Amino acid sequence: MMGRAVLLVGGRLLAALAGLGLLGGAALPLRLARADPVAGISSPAGTLQVQVLLSGDGKPGYSVARHGRPVIAESRLGFLLTDAPKLDRNFTLESVGTRSVDQTWEQPWGERRFVRDRYNELRVRLKEKRPPARALEVVFRVFEDGVGFRYEFPGQPQLSDVNIADELTEFAVAEPATAWWIPAGEWNRYEYLYNRTPLAEVGQAHTPVTLKLAGGVHVALHEAALVDYSAMWLRRVEGQRLKTTLSPAAEGARVKRKAPFTTPWRTLQIADDAGGLVTSDLILNLNEPNALGDVAWFVPHKYVGVWWSLHLDTESWASGPKHGATTTNVKRYIDFAAANGFRGVLVEGWNRGWDGDWFADGSEFSFTEPYPDFDLEGLADYARERGVRLVGHHETSANIAHYEPQLEPALDLYARLGVDTVKTGYVADAGGVQALGPDGKVRYEWHDGQVMSRHHLKVVQEAARRHIAVNAHEPIKDTGLRRTYPNWVAREGARGMEYNAWGVPPNPPEHEANLVFTRMLAGPMDFTPGVLSLTGRGGQPIQSTIAKQLALYVVIYSPIQMAADLPENYAKYPEPFQFIRDVPVDWDDTRVLNGEVGDYVTIARKDRRSDDWYVGAVTDEDARSVRVPLDFLEPGRTYTARLYRDADGADWRTNPQAIIIETRQARRGERWELPLAPGGGLAIRFEASSRGLAGANR
Ligand code: NOJ
Ligand code: CA
Asked: Rounded to whole angstroms, how far apart are CA atoms 537 and 324?
């Protein structure tokens, strides 16, 4: 039973809402004067309140408040269609339904093992007052940590083919805010440095967009379960008002669907502080449960590979004297992986097609034929005999017209060889995806349009059939689909380590402190950390200390993590390298100890397979000291803590290699304070002592 949903007619609602305590004492958004609330609901513990509004001319809208204080002021809902009148006015409220859910589900792998999914749901059915009298449903799920809502297009003869020109959903942020965002609709997809601007200076942004409101509340706008639909971009239309615009299609409607269907969830994560956004499970909760059944065949792992050398340009993808993917070279990587406990060895440039201008076209790629100096079958065996797996690579140059016909034989080949993770790649400018149109001719699509949302799921589903995991680069953004398809384990979708090889500029020291509170809210990232040599192509310095490279394994979550540097470089840093060998990639629990968007963050995570805890902290260009309260440790237990921290005088510009590695005893309740250098970081392993009497039951 749920007592907090209300449906009221006309102007009596406000009084009733106030009576239920839904409005708190705070002032209502001014725009309420123009539209009447017709239904409302609050989160189970009452933190958040949502109202559904209808204006005099039947335009639907919504608003969100937190503890009675407006977060989202009156904001419009609706659609533009290509072949029918717009669907955004003349509505009446036909019915209201409510539901409460409180359940806990288990992640096969992740940042935490158990996830609580607790919300109140409000479903409103709207119907046009006049012909064509179309119906549209909007469903709100209100959690303590945010709100998700989506549209449901019911089956109806007057709107069976839904051709969406654009979506009209708005987010009118109720207070001045600072925004962290990257531009949408630009050529480099998601690979931009984050802007920090007043919200009132945002242009057109990808999500997640992260906001800090004047009153201190943090909000992240994003979406969940982007399936067979086009990605939501946010465009500022006036003041603090953001409006959805869908990623374009090559031609015609941006989304073409047959009713009935549901749109992705539009999400607002709302928290007191920046860390609250990171620990919110709202995006996952709004996705459908695991559709694959037992996925124990995916083993979270660390990997090395023929990769950094390619970005340094000391080896090449292309065949010839610099070819990296040779049998001899890859054996060296396999031996290195086996000796250091890494499960995977990625090999890029193994297959035919890299010799011409692969960047521009991708039509030469074969996904089954290795170059002659790469003994694919022999190396797959060589690896398996040593407890290692090759990690597959499909760079498509976003020519999916060329890739899709090869997809099944390519995955069959990997399955036969025991290659159970594949990195895919879609290098091409945004808008440059080559896909076949209905007439069999090539169309140029966007990386995050409906065509690509379908393509990625097709790859993930075909891979799942063969027990293969997928790590997509130049992907469509993550919207939590790993819950439904747990073999979609990671993706890129931001500037990763490669920018430190050749980026102009390379990633600045604040980059990772931005990522944690923006890109990472969407899901795991294959950032490829761990370049301890701290130099890119031609000796370009990486804007990081050595301790920060270690911290990234804790701070940037992914169930697959690369040790990206060259084996010969790791040989030079055996002591820091030990942390990379030790750090797990699958967690029982995650806590954000402190942090501010773009400045710093400290995260503690508990290993899924032992009682050990790990802490990572990173800072921007400023030195600071971070608090590490050890409240996460088990009471009464001692831990041996191995600290990897910036030494006195460490600085990414002048002394990046200065690290102190030391051992301390640690107990719950202690409050540590540790220094971070400019561009610096901190990594700690807390190894749990055995419990109780030595040897008892162990
Ligand atoms: C871009 C990817 O992000 C990178 O990791 C890869 O090496 C190249 N594309 C080539 O596929
Ligand atoms: Ca990339």
From this structure: 16
